[in-house]
Amino acid sequence: MSYTKRLNKIYAVLIFIFLYAPIAVLILFSFNDSNSTGVLTGFSLKWYRELLSDEATMTALKNTLILAVSSSLLATLIGTAAAVGINKMKNKYLVGAVNTVTNIPMMNPDIVTGISLMLLFVFVGGIVNSSNSLNFWTVLIAHITFNLPYVILNVLPKLRSMDRHLPEAALDLGCTPLQSFFKVELPAIMPGVISGLIMAFTLSLDDFVISYFTVGNGFETLPIRIYSMTKKRVTPDMYALSTLIFIVILALLLLSNFVGERDAAKKVGKKKGAKK
Amino acid sequence: MKKRSLLSQAAAAPHIVWSVLFIIAPLLFVAYYALTDADGNFTLSNFGSLFTAEYLEIFLRSACFAFLATVICLVIAYPVAYFISKTSPKTQKLLIVLVMLPQWMNFLIRTYSWMAILEDTGIINTVLGWVGLGPVHMINTAGAVILGMVYNFLPYMILPIYTSLSKLDPRFVEASADLGCNAFGTLLHVILPLSRSGIISGITMVFVPSISTFYISQKLGGGNFDLIGDTIERQFQSAYNYNLGAAISFVLMVLIIVSMTVMNRFGEEEGGVVA
Q1: Is residue B1 pLDDT above 80, yes or no?
Q2: Are the beta carbons of B12 and A86 separated by less than 8 Å?
Q3: Average pLDDT score, chain B
Q4: Which chain B residues touch A108 with a CB distance below 8 Å?
Q5: Which residue intervals of chain B are DSSP H helices?
Q6: pLDDT single digits (tens) A199-250
Q7: Inter-chain contact A257–B97, Cβ cutoff 8 Å?
Q8: Which tens digits make up the pLDDT trace of B107-152?
């Protein structure tokens, strides 16, 4: 038994080595002295310095953040409202139709979502005779579109598992429907809304394929900049950037884990208190 | 009361309008472009030109690579998911975060990093050189492309399988053992069927991005292994033949729908045999 257990552990470790090998390589070579990605010549921070002085990359980073924040916020707004509406729908054919259409961007390959939106934008741009039919607004629309299903997917289960009597009670006690939504329903579904927002934000941050087809020349996001750089030979300042992003994400994950555990502890405490 | 219910249903209206404008309309445009020529006249020649050896080879190659990558992912991921589901709840949480963490790094950079590992003068061959072996030619081979797919999409296989395994009631496993099933029998007749939903969503989440990728094949295949994604990308970003690109995308969608239907049917049959 312990023999197979050890074998299992070795196997799991091997898989994790496989998953992290390219990342380890990235981090290692971001501190490399030369611009080789095959031979380590010595330790240096010069790629980090170079990164900070690279204006195009910094602009791309800023653009990516603007896009991710605005698209995730808008998608959360539209998506949460949509979940509320879908939850109230009685006609099962309507619910089925809405759900099917909502899930299309999730099921379709990214490249198809990307080119389908591009065709729409190019066609409309052709009608209004616009010289650049692809720009910040088109990529924003594209990001909201692929973020929406993930927001709805996160919010809808929370609405369904919520006690239906709560909003009714609020109405009976004289709340207007809007008040009841903001004071009773929204707090109850907040965890779903937040996780939808975070998911949308990270998807938007990381998206390359859909942005690649829906963005024009004037607006460059980080993944698109990375793509155009990998067409030639990547310089290790991209490695430096990835290392920094990796560290930030690691810190965020640790933090959210910590907050989550604290919240869980609080909840347990509350429940215990209620029982008393 | 009815009025109020209608009012709250209307909250979905912006989303419905959005879906019609930016999900349904774009797909109709794919069909429109696929069925017209550059001047906007109806034609079937876009589809006709796909029935040539050149394109059939690309479709076949993409399907083969995606199939192999999916099978490899499944074989690798299942034991990992099982192992994770057997650890303590706290460890489970940590391990799942560790599985997903690489996905938060830009996938272009991760794929590029594999180039540095696999190159003829890359890391593996450097290490092999130290012990007097190699060099082994790995980059720009079919194996490298499939490795890139497996690497990039493996977490999407581990996660859903883990989810369904962690929901599995351990009493079923105990019951199976009590009734005289050996470990392998329990795996085959109890654990595997009960984690079917996880396996199916894992397969979907690996197969769809694998069959439609274009970056992995460009970087790790050195342009020697054109996939469907590459041909679509070329039509839209360099050849500017939107009509042909739309037709290829249309075929890709159909290909995916067909394989998913076949798989779901297969999954149901499997369930039938077991039940």
Answers
A1: no
A2: yes
A3: 88
A4: 253
A5: 2-9, 13-19, 25-34, 45-48, 53-85, 89-100, 107-118, 123-130, 142-166, 170-178, 183-186, 192-194, 196-212, 215-220, 228-237, 242-274
A6: 899 889 889 999 999 988 788 999 999 888 888 777 788 888 889 888 888 8
A7: yes
A8: 898 998 898 889 887 888 888 888 888 778 888 999 999 999 999 9
- Contact in structure between B67 and B59 (CB atoms under 8 Å): no
Domain A56-240 sits in CATH 1.10.3720.10: yes
**To 5 degrees, how large is the angle CA B260–CA B266–CA B270?**
145
Q: What sign results for the dihedral spanned by CA atoms B267, B273, B274, B275? A: positive
The DSSP bridge partners found for residue A43 are A32
Say whether residue B155 is in contact with chain A using an 8 A CB cutoff. Answer: yes
Do A98 and B16 lie within an 8 Å CB cutoff?
A: yes
Q: CB count, 10 Å around CB of B201?
A: 17
A39/A213 Cα distance (integer angstroms) = 36
Contacts of A82 (CB under 8 A, 6+ apart): A102, A148, A152, B11, B12, B14, B15, B16
For B154, the closest chain A residue by CA position comes to A19
| Contact partners, residue A159, CB within 8 Å, separation at least 6 | A83, A84, A87, A185, A189, A192
Q: Distance, in angstroms, between B180 CA and closest chain A CA? A: 18
Looking at residue A276, what is its pLDDT?
39
How many angstroms separate the CA atoms of B116 and A242, rounded?
15
Q: Which is it for the CA torsion B99, A45, B127, A6, positive or negative? A: negative
Q: What's the sign of the alpha-carbon dihedral A46, A52, A55, A60?
A: positive
> Distance of CA B46 to CAs A213, B58, B241, Å?
21, 16, 10
Report the run of H or E that residue A221 belongs to, with start and end: none
Q: Name residue, tokens 């809405």.
A: A98
- Work out the burial of residue B263: count CB atoms within 10 Å of its CB; fewer than 13 is exposed, 13-18 middle, 19 or more buried: middle
Predicted pLDDT at B271? 46
The three-point CA angle A147-B13-B22 to 5° equals 45
Position B273 scores a pLDDT of 38
Indicate if the pLDDT at residue B2 is higher than 70. no
Is the Cβ pair A119, B242 closer than 8 Å?
A: yes
R_g of chain A, CA atoms, integer Å: 24
A33: three-class secondary structure by DSSP: coil
B134: phi then psi, degrees, rounded to nearest 5: 70, -165
Q: Could A23 and B110 be called an inter-chain contact, meaning their C-beta atoms sit closer than 8 Å?
A: yes
Q: Which domains does chain B have, with CATH numbers?
A: 51-274 (1.10.3720.10)
User: A234 — phi, psi (to 5°)?
Assistant: -70, 135
